[in-house]
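Input record (Table S2, row 139):
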Amino acid sequence: MMIIDVRKLNAQKKYTGSMEFEYSAPKELIEIPFVSFASSVKVRFDYQLYEDDSLDIRGTVCYQLEGQCSRCLKDAKTEVKGELDAYFQPFKNGEDYSYSGGVIDLTQAINEAVMASMPFTLSCGDDCQGILYASETEN
Ligand SMILES: [Zn+2]
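Output record (zinc ion complex):
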């Protein structure tokens, strides 16, 4: 699922194309307290395979988060969209992803795209009045 078989793409001469799938991201990617994934992560991207067997992918990761609003602690849910942009080479080279055996495992690149898109807080919405206001009105 999370694998691109470069040998197969070469054999079929599919040097460009697009792919789309969903996966269950590990909850360790979330750093906001009391928040978890409310959906699987939808992954979509276009790829380009070059003559030297390097592969470029560009697309998006999309998912929902649910949990407690970071300000007022009410239940909240939000949709997050992030960029997926990765370059794989069949040898180690600096910061790029590398792969071997003609098969690319996308897991690390996708997890990193999810982490990069992760908000620092979860909000119940633009009209969130925060926990300070809530406690003042109670008194
Ligand atoms: Zn709130």
